[in-house]
Design goal:
Layout (H helix, E strand, L loop, with lengths): L33 E5 L3 H13 L3 E5 L2 H10 L4 E5 H4 L3 H5 L9 E5 L4 H9 L4 E4 L4 H14 L15 E6 L7 H12 L22 E5 L7 H4 L8 H5 L2 H4 L2 H4 L4 E2 L5 E3 L13 H11 L5 E5 L6 H9 L2 E6 L3 H17 L5 E7 L9 H8 L5 E3 L5 H8 L3 H4 L4 H14 L22
Parallel strand pairs: 1-2, 1-3, 3-4, 4-5, 6-10, 6-11, 7-9, 7-10, 11-12, 12-13
Antiparallel strand pairs: 8-9
Helix pairs in contact: 7-18
């Protein structure tokens, strides 16, 4: 067994096919992970050992599920990579055979056998990769599983001395992505102090910082509406101003400050301005703004394009917002599959469930079984509170600092800055809304 430092990728461009691994943080700073390989086929076993060693991981190899279970009794593994035919029928038992709870499992499926891939996922596999894979694809899928399982803690800031970028995104509109981004940004900027007796000490640990909120829903962004702002300038105007793009002081003219201290770069007021904001413009804007802030919160909306993918790559943390119903879950699953196959992300990731309707359409355990990721927070249904806060332009964390939804939003903000949660106090059954997660 050996541990080889992972190579440092070069470059920083989004490829024409949105295939980019360039902005992965310096991975040779990450510790090696112990991975168990279970494969009967000697050629596949050697291929996995070589690829994983080159990626900087330490591996132990066995031939059968029985040997894998025996190995897991004496040693703690971060991930299992198993040959589908060898592990068939034993996937569920392998995931729970370790001494430290559930161990994620990545299954290698036969090529051109879609039914087998589906069967492995239904049997409990966390992910499936097709035989004949490229080493970089294997590395991306392995890293994605390690991050989701909390076995790898990426560098919290990939650009020392600059702002930490936090991207809010949902593949399905109408789930409250802007609401989550706005309230989180206000909290991080020092707004929305907890009301006495309403929030636990753990929820109160949010040191105020310099925060910029960027509305990148470039056609119909509503960050300004949520904050009751009427910006004179916006990101569309900044993208068209060559002088401002080269001068930080001129660029500041395009920013609007909220009463909470939060600074906003608003979305364009006309939808057609979307087509004038290019990826190059965004690169220059974020380079200009980053040194002046501690956090840049980005509302990406729900559209996936080259600009969105670039921001997801640059971000130090991702917050994916989800409403627990089938369409949203399928969209989230499709997004995770796309990112795993094309742009494996190396940042902290949090999934937030937002209950925008009173009826509980899916149970928490159902969502967790589908997405296989523990959510960072679950925002309960608030009847009219959330709608009123948007209509009045007063963020919920300011207008209702003691509400259950605000307490949940504080957990989102804590997850964004990497503060670990203490065990939550029991929630009344009537207030409890379920969670979710997978892949």
């Amino acid at each position: 067994m050996r541990s080889i430092p992972m190579p440092l990728p070069r470059g920083n461009a989004v490829a024409a096919r949105i295939l980019a691994f360039d902005s992965i943080p310096c991975r040779n700073a990450m510790p090696s992970n112990l991975i168990l390989i279970c494969a009967r086929d000697a050629t596949l076993r050697a291929e996995l050992e070589s690829a994983l060693a080159d990626a900087g991981h330490v591996t132990t190899s066995v031939d059968s599920p029985a040997d894998a279970v025996a190995a897991m009794r004496g040693r703690s593994f971060d991930l299992i990579v198993a040959e589908g035919l060898a592990a068939s029928g034993a996937i569920a038992s392998l995931r729970t055979a370790g001494t430290d709870g559930v161990t994620p499992i990545l299954v290698v499926a036969p090529a051109h056998d879609v039914e087998a891939r589906i069967a492995f996922l239904e049997a409990g596999a966390d992910d499936v990769i097709v035989g004949g894979f490229a080493p970089i694809e294997l590395e991306g899928r392995v890293m994605a599983q390690l991050i989701r399982a909390g076995k790898v803690q990426p560098q919290s800031t990939a650009h020392t001395g600059s702002a930490e970028i936090v991207a809010f995104f949902s593949p399905k509109g109408g789930v409250g992505t802007t609401t989550m981004a706005v309230n989180t940004a206000v909290l991080l900027a020092g707004g929305g102090s907890p009301s006495t007796g309403s929030a636990r000490a753990a929820d109160a640990v949010l040191p105020p910082s310099r925060v910029l909120l960027v509305d990148l829903d470039l056609q119909f962004g509503q960050v300004a509406t949520h904050l009751n702002l009427t910006p004179r300038y916006d990101i569309g105007g900044l993208a068209s101003d060559e002088q401002a793009l080269a001068d930080p002081e001129l660029a500041r003219m395009y920013l609007t400050t909220h009463s909470s201290g939060l600074v906003v770069l608003a979305a364009p007021t006309r939808p057609e301005a979307d087509f004038r904001v290019t990826l190059e413009h965004l690169e220059r804007i974020f380079e200009l703004m980053s040194p002046s802030f501690d956090h840049i919160i980005v509302d990406l909306g729900s559209r996936l394009d080259t600009r969105t993918v670039w921001l997801l790559e640059q971000a130090d943390a991702h917050v994916f917002v989800l409403f627990p119903e089938i369409a949203a879950l399928r969209a989230m699953s499709m997004l995770m599959t796309f990112l795993a196959e094309t742009t494996p992300l190396q940042a902290r990731a949090a999934i937030v469930i937002n209950h925008v309707f009173p009826k509980e359409l899916l149970k928490t355990r159902d969502v967790e079984n589908l997405l296989r990721t523990k959510p960072a927070a679950e925002v309960p249904y608030t009847e009219v509170e959330m709608i009123r806060s948007v209509n009045e332009g007063v963020p919920l964390v300011i207008g209702r600092p003691g509400s259950p939804a605000t307490i949940a939003l504080r957990r989102v903000a804590q997850a964004v800055i990497g503060i670990e949660q203490q065990q939550a106090a029991p929630v009344k059954k009537s207030e409890r809304r379920r969670l979710f997660s997978r892949r």
